[in-house]
Specification:
This protein is an alpha/beta fold. The chain has one domain: YbaK protein, CATH 3.90.960. It is built from 5 helices and 8 strands; from the N terminus they run αβαββαβαβββαβ. Strand 2 and strand 3 form a beta hairpin. The model has no long low-confidence stretch (mean pLDDT 96).
């Protein structure tokens, strides 16, 4: 069996004593969507959450963690985060800002501790799946543990 390399996100959880599972899956470079991840990894799409990196006009970089099949409501995120407006960052900014690439962006273990906002739908799930910080690897943990590890604020981000 191939030894799985620990990611920064997994190390952070280890350091906090938070239990999690690692789920690996085959990566399709042409389809990095959370829906595809759920199908490939055999996970329920309602439990797969994606991390979007945005920039608020007052707070700067913000990470939003929303359901894999959902679309973010930037107005809701702006309101929750105390910004007048929030916009998605340019893809070319993702790696320099977070240390992560598209399809492998985790709300945990980024280059800086950016504010994390978790969509309230996560609270309806016993366990959720987030990127481990690299393509082909998901971390499965309770929403409460993600909040603990990331100091996430729970808000309605998709309404």
């Amino acid at each position: 069996m191939k030894k799985i390399k620990k990611t920064n996100a997994a190390r952070l959880l280890d350091n906090l004593g938070i239990k999690y599972e690692v789920k690996t899956y085959e990566v399709d470079e042409n389809d990095l969507s959370a829906v595809h991840v759920a199908e490939t990894a055999g996970l329920n799409i309602n439990s797969v959450f994606k991390t979007l990196v945005t920039r608020g006009d007052k707070t700067g970089i913000i990470m939003a963690v929303i359901g894999g099949a959902d679309e973010i409501n930037l107005k809701s995120l702006a309101k929750a985060s105390g910004n007048k407006s929030v916009e998605m960052i340019a893809l070319k900014e993702l790696l320099p800002l977070t240390g992560y690439i598209r399809g492998g962006c985790s709300p945990l273990g980024a280059k800086k501790n950016y504010p994390v906002y978790l969509d309230k739908k996560a609270m309806t799930q016993e366990k959720i799946s987030i990127s481990a910080g690299q393509r082909g690897m998901q971390l499965i943990l309770s929403p409460q543990d993600l909040i603990k590890a990331s100091n996430a604020v729970v808000a309605d981000l998709t309404a």
